[in-house]
Amino acid sequence: MSNLRHLLSAADLSRDAAINLLDLSETMASVNDREIKKLPTLRGKTVVNLFFEDSTRTRISFELAAKRLSADVINFSAKGSSVSKGESLKDTAQTLEAMGADGVVIRHAASGAAYTLAHSGWINGAIVNAGDGTHEHPTQALLDAFTIRRRLHGSASTGKALDGVKVAIVGDVLHSRVARSNLLLLNTLGAEVHLVAPPTLLPADSSGWNAHIHYDLDAMLHRVKPDAVMMLRVQLERMSAAFFASEREYARVWGFNADRLALLGSKSLLMHPGPMNRGLEISSAAADSPNSTVLEQVANGVSVRMAVLFNLLSGERSIENV
To answer: How, if at all, do strands 192-196 and 212-214 pair?
Structure first.
């Protein structure tokens, strides 16, 4: 498979490239099922996790992925670093370049930060966008697609896309980089995407979005019968105004509860990128149900990020005979 230079957006991936990454993730998943979960493929490479925003799942997932490929890993947190003393992104990047970073995984509050880093000339290493503001989070979209494909097709998933699969993305679409990346990738893979949210939590102009728009969750569940429902975290920290009447009202109208769970088919997936606000966008009964893929998504994230790092950093090294 052809290697990427960077992964900044889900739009960077063609249909073939996305399917190849999902197939490579299957190979990595088989490695993660072994007693010794280690490959020598990135030995001698250095991966820097450059996180300007707090993260648990994504940072640890990338760290574990790099270590399982035998790369050296440096974890850089803005808190307690020179960044908190006023150092710019440019100075930080040039410091990492001087240290010989082969790959940089960046999470930043500013939309476009990963693109800036990749095209600035400040650093020569491969850049992976681990979330930039409200813009994108492409590896989350990949792991979500991988989870859907595995649940629907099982061991026969290799080589398959998601043609005709109906996916509903529900909740705080306006502030969600996960929603944006998923919309792009799901469209690339042939899925039918439905966005379900109150008007205040949708972009002012969604005419360019290749998705069906709904304002009633129950009606959508009855009419569409989605194969997967992806609940989004309500991002209260990004809200500077009142986007809904109250948390109790939001949970009643838009939260996925036991009643809505009963409307799902037994094989339909209930997804959440985490961290979950239990009792707000999703109830404990729903989050802990057999339909839920929350923990699978976390586990699959390691396999997918191994595939991304391998693709970006392996050069001519082969994955055969792993």
So the answer is: parallel
